[in-house]
Amino acid sequence: QEPPQEQPAAANDNTQSSTSSSEAPLYESRDMRDKTLIANAAGEQAQWLDTEYGKLLAFYRPTEAKQTHGVLILFHSAEDPQTWPPILENLRTNLPRYGWETLAVTLPQKYPQPVPARASSASASSTSETAPATQPPAPAENTEPATTQASSSSSSRVPRGTLVAAYVQATLKFLQEKGQFNAVFLVDNSSADLVLQQLLPQIKENPKDPSTIDGPIQALVMTNLQSQEQLSTSELTAIFANKQLPVLDVFFNPDDAGQSNARDLHHAVAMRQKLDNYIQASLDSQPKIVETDPRSFLAARVRGFMQKHASGTELKGGNNTKTERQTTP
After folding, report:
1. Which of 82, 93, 168, 226 has the fewest CB atoms in 10 Å of its CB?
2. Which CA distances in Å does 281 have to 26, 134, 221, 252, 287?
3. pLDDT tens-digit profile of 30-75?
4. pTM of the prediction?
5. Which CA distances in Å does 246 have to 13, 221, 240, 308?
6. From CA 217, how far away is CA 199, in angstroms rounded?
7. DSSP symbol at 153
8. Nearest-5° angle of CA 318, CA 322, CA 325?
9. Which tens digit of pLDDT belongs to each residue from 235-260?
10. Which of 256, 248, 318, 252 is nearest to 282 (CA)?
């Protein structure tokens, strides 16, 4: 029997090429690749929360003080955590030194930006050979939303409201497993209604102690960062449905006519709903340098609000420690 003949080099190359092309990609999507790199850079702060639509990247900072008062959960509609405004990053990084843990969660944007199509290698090579060097690239024809191209396949076509509800539940479950039951929510105006719509009905009036909320959150901070997505009267009425829930409503300059009307509407609805503790603040827009300032005005304002209306007490039993708001007997 004759020995098998060696395959030509070209055939071997083709075999290796077909094998490598059949291998599974390292990341299931561009979104997962980007977030994995961000998580690796963040180290221990990065936490992957499980949802029925895939993994959710969150950033958790435990307390840096002797006593833990509670946790501020920051929800912001920005797919990329690196694009968060400096004011939110300032709160996230500096409140733990005063006994307030922080958990930052990115939410799907209301209006995703289109992602330009990537040209195939064949068309790119033919274009480079035939087109003159000075010819500008052709415009991309694919305007598919970023949530379809950049998200994992399991969540690419899920409605935004469904995703937000799943993310909120995963966030609360994560904190409960850590024994953290004293939560304050910070939401921007573009996602406030979606974040709160399932939680607000769970809040019950507490006639024994009006200063303590019987529900999953103890206070609410609203940051009106999306001036183009003002809340409607019906949305505000639902958000301000429980008169015992303390609310810090923050607006940012420039205070133009549109924002002035929005501030008036927020205040009018809050008064009509008879909120016990409604505070409205108007602050200057903060430069990026504020991101690292532990004594920024917004951080002090938010911390003072939480300390007065939502500060909890650590309860220790056995090997477990939990923080919750105590009811006055």
Report:
1. 82
2. 47, 53, 11, 8, 18
3. 766 767 776 666 678 888 999 999 889 899 999 999 999 999 999 9
4. 0.74
5. 67, 8, 9, 10
6. 8
7. T
8. 135
9. 999 999 999 999 999 998 878 898 99
10. 252
